[in-house]
Design a protein that fits this description.
Elements: E1 2-5, H1 9-31, E2 34-38, H2 45-51, E3 61-65, E4 67-69, H3 79-87, E5 96-97, H4 111-118, E6 126-129, H5 147-151, E7 158-161, E8 170-173, H6 175-179, E9 183-189, H7 191-200, H8 211-214, E10 217-222
Parallel strand pairs: 1-10, 2-3, 2-6, 3-5, 6-9, 9-10
Antiparallel strand pairs: 4-8, 7-8
Helix pairs in contact: 1-2, 2-3
This protein binds 6-phosphogluconic acid (6PG).
EC number: 3.1.1.31
GO molecular function: 6-phosphogluconolactonase activity
Protein name: 6-phosphogluconolactonase
Length: 223
């Protein structure tokens, strides 16, 4: 793991957006297309704001979430809504959104169709992840009902998981899909998450699911 500490959050935002844009540009040069997998939650908004204005051939970039909360897009908890409002606008409006949500009561109802839509965009060229203070990434929560299966090398691309900490049911990319990314960046802020990351070193993957991507990740941190 490569740990990069920034003087403040604004510095982090600009430097990380620059790094992600560079990785995406490299993937476009190499493969003619790029896939960009991003987190929801509260931390990445400013990075999305900056990236959305970056000059890049966004028309050849597909964008999808690490995970989605099974709520309608009108909900303030919808990660898809966050993506549309903060990333897929300005220059990045030309990117293609690969959905991780559809209108159905349960994620299981749509899992197969969503996985079929996602498969052509894999492997992930550039992966950005957030992390909770409980050391979850995507919706791989410690204690989630099907966590062991989602961490296993044989896991399907997408799974529906439930855990008390998550609130609503989740749909999430699984560990092998996340680990298969060409470039992996983890964005965390604040002392609590930094301490959690240090603690993860002494725990198992089931206790600290973030471990599943750490070996090849660059961690970007600011207070
Ligand atoms: O839907 C989600 O909740 C996310 O994709 C999740 O994995 C997120 O990255 C972490 O929970 C950190 O969230 P914060 O940035 O809000 O702390």
């Amino acid at each position: 793991m490569n740990f990069v500490e920034y003087p403040d959050r604004e510095f982090l935002t600009l430097a990380l957006a620059d790094r992600l844009a560079g990785d995406l540009a490299q993937a476009l040069r190499q493969d003619g297309r790029a896939s960009f997998c991003v987190p929801g939650g509260t931390t990445p908004g400013p990075v999305f704001d900056t990236l959305s204005g970056v000059d890049l051939d966004w028309s050849r970039v597909s964008v999808f979430l690490n995970d989605e909360r099974w709520v309608p897009e009108t909900s303030p908890r919808s990660n898809t809504r966050l993506l549309r409002e903060r990333l897929l606008r300005s220059k990045a409006a030309a990117a293609t959104l690969v959905p991780l949500h559809a209108d159905a009561p349960l994620p299981e109802d749509q899992l197969e169709a969503l996985a079929e839509g996602l498969a052509p965009h894999l492997p992930i060229s550039v992966l950005l992840l957030g992390m909770g203070a409980d050391m979850h990434v995507a919706s791989l929560f410690p204690g989630a009902d099907r966590l062991a299966e989602a961490l296993s090398p044989q896991a399907p691309l997408l799974m529906a998981l439930r855990s008390d900490a998550a609130g609503e049911p989740r749909i999430t990319l699984t560990a092998p899909v996340l680990r298969g990314a060409m470039a992996i960046h983890l964005l965390i802020t604040g002392a609590e998450k930094r301490n959690a990351l240090q603690r993860a070193a002494t725990l198992s993957d089931l206790e600290a699911p973030v471990r599943t991507v750490l070996a090849n990740a660059t961690v970007h941190w600011a207070e």
